[in-house]
Amino acid sequence: MNGAMNSDPKVRDAALGWALAMRAPDFDDWDGFTDWLEADPAHGLAYDEVQFALDDADAALAVLPEPAPEPAPEPAAANDNPPGWLASRRGWLGGAIAAALVLAVTSVLWVGPQATTYQTAPGETRLIALEDGSTVELAGGSTLALEGARAARLEAGQALFTIRHDASEPFVLTAAGTRLVDAGTVFDVRLAGDRLDLAVSEGAVIVDPRNEAVRVDAGERAVRSGNRTRVVAVDPASVGEWRRGRISFDAASLAEIAAELTRATGKNFTSADTATRLSGSIATDALRSDPRALEPLLGVKVREEGANWVIAAE
Amino acid sequence: MAPTDPLEEAYLAHRPRLLRFLRARGAGEAAEDLAQELWLRLAAASDREAASGLAYMMRAADRLMIDRYRSHRQATLRDAAWAEAQPGLADNIAPAPGPEREIAARQQVALVQQALEEVGARAAAIFRRHRIDGLTQREIAAEFGVSLSTVESDLRRAYAKIVDVRGAIDEA
After folding, report:
1. Is the ipTM of this complex over 0.95?
2. CA of A270 vs chain B CAs: smallest distance (Å)
3. One domain for residues A198 and A135
4. What is the reported pTM?
5. A215-231: per-residue pLDDT in tens?
6. Does residue A3 form part of some domain?
């Protein structure tokens, strides 16, 4: 089973072909695939080896830097241009950017101009009631744009979504460039840089339904960064605990913890330390009156510098 | 149990086909047990309507077998590592990512990078778009302004190189 790669290159090529074909969303030749597998036990083994190697390559690729990052698509203003505009510039924009522009323009047409933006100051929270009875509780230092009745964009910070499910019109949240689609849900989303942290306490959420389509069920937490999603278990009771003045960290750096604490308390915590990582759960209320109360909680040093509270490893 | 559960009905209707597929995938005598495990995975899906489709079930069965292959492999590698370990180190062997796993992962990254350099920049970029960003071959053809058959042959070359590199690690 853990031996060398199947020695017959024809079998390997056929296995590659099936792995490639299977990846298409509309693949339906299950009988053909089963027939091929049944023809020789070596086929299944070769196929396993191919899928296994590809899985590992995906994991490796996710940590490699992208060779040539594309420039961000043009903002919404592209909408104002006359119809011939896109075609006339296709030549110098290049196919890739033009394709991204098409997407940007289309989404602008979909959501229309009625987006309403809600913003909270650090230390402040806000409850937003939606027309259909769904609610969004916005944590401190967060920005949420509502784009119509069933679409929203989390631009910064964190929010707990309690969504009334409607299979005919699912609620779609965009965060850090990723689409999340609810399937009857209470879920919490937290943004830290380009990292998206999703925790589901009821129902399920589909992450990036068009591509990766990762299902995150109640009691699961998905951490997405660099286009890769990792799903781990979470205590459903802890989802949205920030509303009760508690936040949890999972191998978060002191710099990340400082940013979270600033959002939660309204006190300016800072840290340049991205190497020291801590896990745990702390109550934030005491920190509002005494930022130094963090010291025994995390085993760190907190130093006052002007308006800032600087966190350093002990 | 409710008198009619559409997901269960669909599963029972597809069960012979799923069993045949699991056996063909190498499940052998464990096929019935694996079909049961598959059912548990399907029943846990909260979008039961989506889970009722044959394609969903087949993909779940395929994934189940890939997971099984992986855990068998890791068990075999762990046994080998155990046998090779110095007596003093044996206590430190943990299933969690340890230093040796981390080195293996780094080596894996380097080899994937090398494999993709060998297939060329376009094929490497197409591979990434397909595997990581999840674009279909058709979408990639439009984005890169190349034909569908070019996308497929680039992907095939990249897949083959990745699998070869993996084979080389295993033989080392």
Report:
1. no
2. 30
3. yes
4. 0.48
5. 888 888 888 887 778 88
6. no
